[in-house]
Amino acid sequence: MRGRNIYSGPRPATRNFSIEIHPPSEYLAAYIFHFLTNDDYRGSTSFLAKHLFNLLGILCVCLAVIGIVLPVMPTTVFLLLAAYFFARGSRRFHDWLMRNRLFGSYVRNYREGKGMTANAKLFSISFLWAGILFSLYLTSLLWLQVLLILVAIGVTIHILAIKTHKEA
Question: pTM for the full model?
Answer without folding.
Answer: 0.55
